[in-house]
Structures are given as C-alpha cells and as structure tokens.
Amino acid sequence: DGGITQSPKYLFRKEGQNVTLSCEQNLNHDAMYWYRQDPGQGLRLIYYSQIVNDFQKGDIAEGYSVSREKKESFPLTVTSAQKNPTAFYLCASSTQDLYEQYFGPGTRLTVT
Amino acid sequence: EDKVVQSPLSLVVHEGDTVTLNCSYEVTNFRSLLWYKQEKKAPTFLFMLTSSGIEKKSGRLSSILDKKELFSILNITATQTGDSAIYLCAVEEQGAQKLVFGQGTRLTINP
C-alpha cells in the first residue's frame, strides 16, 4: 500500500521538552511538507523539502527544525522555543508537479 | 504577501440543499488553485483549476475559476450528511513549489 504515515497519532509533552514527529512516505515523491493546523484555521506551512538534504522555511518556521536525510523520511522537531506548540500537525508529499499533495493522517500534539 | 481567503468560515444547511463555497486569492504569479476536503484528519484532493471559465465536475461537486476576478467557487448540489467536512482552498504560485492555504470552510449538513 502506497501512502504517507505519521506517528504517533497523539502525543503529549511537558513544556520545555523537544519532541520529534515522524513522517514517512513510500510514494517515491521528491517533495515533502509540514503543516500546522489550529482550530478554525487552515493549514500553515512550517517547512518543506524539494530534494534530499535540502529544505526551506515556510511561513511559521520559528521554533521548529527538520531534516531530510532520506527521500522517504522528513521528521519534524518541535523545540522548546516554539511558544504555542499545541496543534494538529500534517505531513504531505508530492511529485515535483506539486498540484496534488498527498497528506498523512496527522499527529495531534498537546503540550502542557 | 500571498493571501487566500475563504468564505463563509462556517455553514450549516439541511440535507438536500445546494451550497456554494468561495475562495478569493492574491498571488503574484498564479499557477493553479486546488480544492481539498478534510473530513477527520488527512485532506483529500478534489479539484485542480488552472484556466478561467472551465468547470471541473465530479458527481455532485463542481468548481470553476475566474482568473480576472481572482476567485473560485465550489458548488455542492443535493448535499448529504457525508459532505460534512472542512473544505480547503489552496493556491500555487509559479516557481514557488509550495501551496498557500485559506482558512477553510466548515460545512455541516444536518439530516
């Protein structure tokens, strides 16, 4: 089955701790994306990567970091510098054509 | 700064009604506009629009783009409870390699 997996589905952390969200795809897509979704809001782009070992900041990159060491994997670290990390995080991938992004099931992060 | 604005933000109708969702945008070099449906978690792709005036249709859903007035509409006829979802509009700019999403419209269909 081709697709995107994100783990875990739910994550709870204490304030001040870094946490890493996993995103894996077996669609052979070059591009991968991380979005954040807050209640009543659309998707806001955190980071994206067009190719292995390269990535760009999105609109709300502060307090987050990523790596792209393998084509299939694009983990997102939410650092303690992120002021309001509680949110729903979605990972997506696409071909270089971009027009059809495939989304993972998301991770709901709660920081208390 | 690129901007995508959807309206209404929330809509509640009865089963069988027809609804129209709006998406307006401001981007420097427009390439495409996409509609997604998000029921519980992962958004799923509905339509991609690149040319003005050409309607895209899939069952009871249809969408059209107006590149002169910079907006798109998504129509759903004979709505069903299964149409309840957040509908997201996104715009791609030429060469940007990323999408800009609107806030979404939360559609609720009551039986």
Report what the structure shows.
The complex is a heterodimer of chains A (112) and B (111). With 112 residues, chain A is mainly beta. Helix content of chain A is 0%, strand content 50%. Chain A contains no helices and 11 strands. Chain A is globular, with a radius of gyration of 13 Å. Chain B is mainly β and 111 residues long. Chain B has strands spanning 3-7, 10-14, 19-26, 30-38, 44-49, 56-58, 61-66, 71-76, 85-93, 99-101, 105-110. Chain A binds chain B through residues 31, 33, 35, 40-45, 48, 50, 58, 88, 90, 96, 98-106, and chain B through 4, 6, 9, 32, 34, 41-45, 48, 88, 90, 92, 97-104, 106.
Features:
A: about 110 residues, mainly beta, 4-stranded antiparallel beta sheet, globular, B: about 110 residues, 6-stranded mixed beta sheet, 5-stranded antiparallel beta sheet
Strand share of the residues of chain A? over 45%
**Rough outline of chain B:** globular
**What is the H/E order of chain A?**
EEEEEEEEEEE
What's the total helix number of chain A?
0
Count of beta strands of chain B? 11
Class based on secondary structure composition and strand pairing of chain A:
mainly beta
Gyration radius of chain B (Cα, Å) is 13 Å
